[in-house]
Amino acid sequence: MSAGPRSLTQYLAVVKKEFRQTARDRRVMFMLVAAPLIQTVLFGFAVDFDVDRVPTAVADLDRSSASREAARRLLADGTLRRGAAALGAAEADGLLDLGDAAAALVLPPDFGSDLAGGRTARAQVLVDGTDPVRAGAAASAASRFFAAAAAERMGDRLRALGLPAPPSAQVTPRVLYNPRLKTAVYVVPGILAMLLVVVTTIVTAMGLSREREMGTLEQVLVTPLRPFVLLAGKMTPFVAIGLLDVLLVLTAMTWIFEVPMRGPLVALGLGSLLYLCSTLGVGLLVSTISSTQQQSFLGAFLFVIPAAMLSGIMTPIRAMPGWLQLATWLNPLRFFAEIVRGVLLRGAGLAELWVQLGVLLFYGVLILGLATARFRTQVG
Hints:
This protein is mainly α. It has helices spanning about 5-25, 25-45, 65-75, 90-100, 110-115, 130-160, 185-215, 215-220, 225-255, 265-290, 295-310, 320-325, 330-345, 355-380; strands at about 55-60, 80-85, 105, 125. It has a four-stranded mixed β-sheet, sandwiched between helices. It is elongated and about 95 Å long.
């Protein structure tokens, strides 16, 4: 038998052995198949950047019809929700300190009289800045309301004097790709990329180390298997399971979270395959420099956490410092997240995503090459 058919036979034998070994371990199968689906659902509901019903303390020191109307209208859109009443600014500040309120509206005693006299009526909005997203939304809601109310009063006053209202510009925003601005539509596709790197990298790293500890790896190495054939055979079942995870999570995304699927699945499938080669290659590389399963787990964990933080899944890459933005180019997770969001949300195809696909191909070949070379050195 020539080298080509013999290598193919050896490869298929390793694949068959890995499939059987993985299928017999119920804990590993749960971690590989069920855990990503469960975590996608949990994270999809738990991660929510939409801000509404912010508990707001109201300190109405004026107690006039104008102050009551201002407070009512400010709280009407649902971003701010009326909470405890405060007798003054100090008490409102105390409610923020205790965590009983996340925002506070303070209307001074002369609020109504200033409005009636045509003077500038001043109000104060206190926000809890420990949650920047919620604080920004609360402050923005208050600023928009008082700006709109001031423009409305100016127009009414000019019309009462028989003068034309000042010209104004009207902006009609059109939100593309995510018209309802739902957090899940943006976050869940990124969660897919994060879960795949967690599951595939850690399981692969620990799997090879486990065989080394049990002594089965040495038994396999005495056979005429070439290192590349052995590693390829060990990776293939996890690639298949990873692609199955992608299908399961895609089903959950579209059915539960109403994430659209606008682009060709061919581009997403190719990106998933290249991404899995990178993540599995990292797991194999970690296992070659580890002696025990604990070391493999820690090594994979030390890769996964920075990769997730520098992927742009939760925070935009453009908001990072310039030197850190350059570091994200070393992160395969970043490019797969861009592929998933590009295909599902923007309808991007191979022509638009060729850069991300090329980078993943480069990293997959590089990482697998390093893992094979390292493994061959250990065997030798």
